[in-house]
Amino acid sequence: MLHIPNFDIIIRWLQQGQIPHYMCDQCHGIHMVDVQSMEGVLESRLFVESEGLLLSTELEVRPSGLLLLVSELGRLNMNYPALKIFVDVVDDNLPRLMVCASAYIEAGMTPEQLTLFVQRTLAATQQLISECEQLGVLNPPESGSDLRAVH
User: Fold this and answer.
1) Is-contact 40 129, C-beta < 8 A?
2) Mean of the pLDDT values across residues 111-121?
3) Which of 10, 8, 4, 1 is nearest to 115 (CA)?
């Protein structure tokens, strides 16, 4: 049976699907533990909006790797067709690689569809992160400190 899920239903379905997550008091996103715990990942969150779901992961990019990463964006977007991959550059922060996927929920969704969407998106994101690590474009955390921001 299809449901038009709200935030509370999504939380319940994530628990039923045994997808590790947590919520912080500083944002309205549901943090995805498996990806957020990877090196170089600043945040990985699922946002529940009225028209759909947005699963977004932010990675810190090494400034010296920015040119290589930008040159690889077309290939990466073709290799990961379910993901939208782009670079976000803001003057006062290090560049970030944004990895996103969305699913419309206005027509309804089942718990199995949510679990499949989240698992497949997280798996593709983890594979992309590994590829970016091999390219050497991600900014590794400094030893002895945790650079992850909590929003």
Assistant:
1) yes
2) 97
3) 10
Q: What angle do CA 136, 142, 145 make, to 5 degrees?
A: 145
Q: Supply angle C-alpha 46, 99, 125, rounded to 5.
A: 85
**Phi (first) and psi of residue 57, to 5 degrees:** -130, 135
CA 123 to chain centre: 10
Beta bridge partners of 96: 60, 88
Q: What is the pLDDT at residue 140?
A: 74
Say if residues 3 and 108 touch (Cβ distance below 8 Å).
Answer: yes
Residue ranges of domains in the chain, CATH in brackets: 7-135 (3.30.1460.10)
Q: Tokens 């698992």 belong to which residue?
A: 119
CA of residue 76 relative to chain centroid, distance: 15
% residues pLDDT > 90 (the chain): 79
pLDDT in tens, 31-57: 999 999 998 899 999 999 989 999 999
Residue 2: pLDDT band with limits 50, 70, 90: confident
Distance CA 146, CA 151 (A): 14
